[in-house]
Amino acid sequence: MPSSDAPRTQITRIAEKQRHDRELLDQLLDSTRVCHVAVVVDGQPVAFPTAFARDGDTLLIHGSTGSPWMRTVAGGAPISVAVTALDGIVVARSAFESSLHYRSAVLFGSAARVPDEDQVAALDRLTEALIPGRSAEVRPSTRRELVATMVLALPIDRWSLKISDGWPEDEAADVAGDGWAGVVPLHETVGAALPAPDLRDGIPVPRSVRTLSGS
Amino acid sequence: MPSSDAPRTQITRIAEKQRHDRELLDQLLDSTRVCHVAVVVDGQPVAFPTAFARDGDTLLIHGSTGSPWMRTVAGGAPISVAVTALDGIVVARSAFESSLHYRSAVLFGSAARVPDEDQVAALDRLTEALIPGRSAEVRPSTRRELVATMVLALPIDRWSLKISDGWPEDEAADVAGDGWAGVVPLHETVGAALPAPDLRDGIPVPRSVRTLSGS
């Protein structure tokens, strides 16, 4: 996978892979469970994963109020957020042309804490992104839980999107040779739900989990 | 997923999840296809995905010499590299305790270009990380290909590792209630190889690809 290229949102090197469709961006954001945040802490760049959700033109990022990295993000420091999906392995006839099928979004901006009055709705979006349908099945969050959780909002307005979904592009001399070329698809599979050891007898698997597991 | 916590490599918030076993780190690095790099470009943190491989105590990162972000990394700028695997969804009785099973490594340091005399071996490691067994099946890289490819090496010496693999930890009052709790496993599935449209007749699927697809 080539890295993204421009310091901000204009991709220079592999222009044919850059996409400007907001709809394609939203599809990626809505189908991916984890993002990676870059932020500068004490002069040192830090990359870390975290759960997220999209709410219209906002990316919601979830964290604990006990995390120094998240507190730096919450303080309005510039951040970059990468959302990446791997769709396959491109097996070219040469090592050089071998690569990955991917969808890669990089967003830029500064995040702010979601106001108290919007926090319950934002947490529901995050729960729904993880387990669709779950927020209606669980009890409301307690005040203690709300205080311990930080939800940050990043505007979705500065972003780049690259999609690699083509066949290998071998040189003519390699195509004429004996080498194989193709694509090996990668998928995420959701397994059967495993009940917790302390689950009381007679409690059925909820609809959200059945839907997630496809069972 | 809670974000990692300390500015550098000491995790403060969820100490029970932090691991110090280098073997567990290597297992994660050796089984994950893509990392996310954080670097500061023109004063702005950037997060981007790229392919990588481990070679002993070195993380090899792959990029194009045409990428400004990779050139910044190659110049010795401080970087952070996140390597993340998602293993499942933790469905707790409350939204608050619901989370992810994950393995999350964050490395820190500065990368340097691999010397010319080591570049072929380093590229082979990267090819092997993507498609095990492939490097022996393809022709050697040409001089032009070597010049167009940058391989950077980051020492694996400053890192943190967090592993979340437990059951939901609901409060006693929730455990006594009617809510379901458990874990939904996530796996990566490798599909059947798809031949390229320009593949000549009679060229068999190579062993590396058969092994990758499990076919």
Structure description:
Two copies of one chain form a homodimer. In chain A, strands 1, 2, 3, 4, 5, 6, 7, 8, 9 and 10 form a ten-stranded antiparallel β-sheet that branches. Chain A is α+β, with helices and mostly antiparallel strands and 215 residues long. The first copy, chain A, has one domain (15-189): Roll (Pnp Oxidase, Chain A), CATH 2.30.110. The first copy, chain A, is built from six helices and eleven strands. Helix content of chain A is 22%, strand content 38%. Mean pLDDT of chain A is 91; it is low at 1-15. Chains A and B meet through β2, β3, β4, α2 and β5 of A and β2, β3, β4, α2 and β5 of B. β10 of chain A pairs antiparallel with β11 (194-195) of chain B. Chains A, B: InterPro entries: Pyridox_Oxase-rel (IPR024747), Split_barrel_FMN-bd (IPR012349).
How do you describe this structure in short?
In chain A, a hairpin with a 2-residue loop joins strand 2 and strand 3. The first copy, chain A, is α+β, with helices and mostly antiparallel strands.
**Annotated CATH architecture of chain A:** Roll
Biggest interface reads:
A-B, 110 and 110 residues
Low-confidence runs of chain A? 1-15
Strand count of chain A: 11
- Provide the CATH superfamily of chain A: Electron Transport, Fmn-binding Protein, Chain A
What would the CATH topology of chain A be? Pnp Oxidase, Chain A
Number of domains of chain A: 1
Beta-strand percentage range of chain A:
35-45%
Count of helical stretches of chain A: 6
Q: What would you report as the Rg of chain A, rounded to the nearest angstrom?
A: 21 Å
Oligomer: homodimer
SSE pattern of chain A, N- to C-terminal:
EHEEEHEEEHHEEHEEH
Shape of chain A: globular
Text of the CATH class of chain A: Mainly Beta
- The helical percent of chain A reads 10-25%
Largest sheet of chain A: 10 strands, antiparallel
Question: Structural class, judged by helices and strands of chain A?
Answer: alpha+beta
The averaged pLDDT of chain A comes out at 91
